[in-house]
Amino acid sequence: MSVVQSRRLLNIISLTGIILTISATIYFYHLGVFNDMNSLRQLIGHSPIAGPLIFILIQIVQVVIPIIPGGISLAAGVLIFGPYWGFIYNYVGIVIGSLILFLMGRHYGKPLIMHLVSDKVYQKYIHCLDDQSRFEKIFAWAIFLPIAPDDALCLMASLTNISFKKYSAIILLAKPASIFLYSWALLQGGSLLSNLLIH
Question: How far is CA 94 from CA 58, 136, 189, in A?
Fold first, then answer.
């Protein structure tokens, strides 16, 4: 296969992935799963195989196309599947979505990133890209702790010289902590609010 053919194949695969992601987003949006917990529960149902797969797909979609705050879907995973399996499904979906996001940014470059990242966030972090070592440290901490727009930084990381292998290692090793902290904080906050309303 020639270079031209391989690039054409990659473009077709990328375009197919984007079309499938947009189609899935529109489908889930019309079902109301992005703003209604009951709709999400009904969609997932009680199937031990289809339910988790659909939820993981929803998590991938919300990372690539951020329709809802990631923390909400994290909490939904724990509430629907329990703390252990909810964590696993959240982790799998978010990791896959983060890897796709990086590959999209690396393939389509700055024009795509400017469409998906707000100007405020872009201007805040763009100066860090000049110092590769500094950016990698900031990026690793942002992924480890729920203190920064990590999806936006995943896209911006694609503009640097960081290798996909190193990027993947940071995502795989650092994501569990932020997923756990997000889920725990939201669930604790929800329990506290419920107790206040009841009493």
Answer: 10, 19, 22
